[in-house]
Amino acid sequence: PQFKIEIVTFFRKSSRGDFVFSADRLIRLVVEEGLNQLPYTECTVTTPTGHKYEGVRFEKGNCGVSIMRSGEAMEQGLRDCCRSIRIGKILIQSDEETQRAKVYYAKFPPDIYRRKVLLMYPILSTGNTVIEAVKVLVEHGVQPSVIILLSLFSTPHGAKSIIQEFPEITILTTEVHPVAPTHFGQKYFGTD
């Protein structure tokens, strides 16, 4: 498929600067759409010129959770749009042979069970890592229906695996394609 050739070529041949610039733009788009999914209330804003404007404000009780390490690339995009949002972290690594995901670290706001969660993980391949992350969130009292997964690329298999396990979760992504770029975190952070 043409997409496979373009994304693989871009991934391999682009400079780190070009890659980060493009990834940050995609991240920002996905984050903004994720924020659009969060509950809000109407409010009146007085502009610097004294005019009243009818706008909206986010309801309290939202947070981000990044799945380390590649999910951390999405944190700045979230902070750029919502600077005071709390962000938790989960470290999950997959066994090379069995492909089973194991949780090594989880740190969340203490009241995460009362919050809407933007779960950040840029490349969704098998879905195993995200499934384990959602299980940890559920153990901390978060309902899957208040979790919005923010992803840049997803395979149909990965998205289907997550939806089968947690049908109430919302998945936002820029592309669903059988081929997902790998080593996103290494390229983004310059450790490739």
UniProtKB/TrEMBL annotation:
Record-level Gene Ontology MF annotations: glycosyltransferase activity; GTP binding
GO cellular component terms, A-Z: cytoplasm; nucleus
UniProt keyword terms in alphabetical order: Cytoplasm, Glycosyltransferase, GTP-binding, Nucleotide-binding, Nucleus, Transferase
Entry's localization field: Cytoplasm; Nucleus
Location (main, coarse): cytoplasm
Source species of the chain: Corythaeola cristata (Great blue turaco)
Superkingdom, natural source: Eukaryota
Protein name per UniProt: Uracil phosphoribosyltransferase homolog
Family: Belongs to the UPRTase family.
Claim: Amino-acid biosynthesis is one of the keywords in the record: no
